[in-house]
Here is the input.
Amino acid sequence: MNVQIHFHGAIDRRGFEQDHIVTCPQGTTVEQVLELLAYPPLQLRAIVAVVKGRRVDRNEPLQDGDTLDLMVPAGGG
Here is the structure.
């Protein structure tokens, strides 16, 4: 299946283009896609994943054609 990854804000794109397509087996979870991107543990903890406009758990299985939006919370004031 194909999953499109869209990186938002200051997140490290890991050298990939903005809208990167990952080909993975059916039933692949958000966590497994993040592992493919090889984020270091400290960065990995801060990443928020969104699919179809809602924040999802990392154990959420993805579907063919999903767009996985990845972002890190930003603070400031």
About this structure: The chain has two helices and five strands.
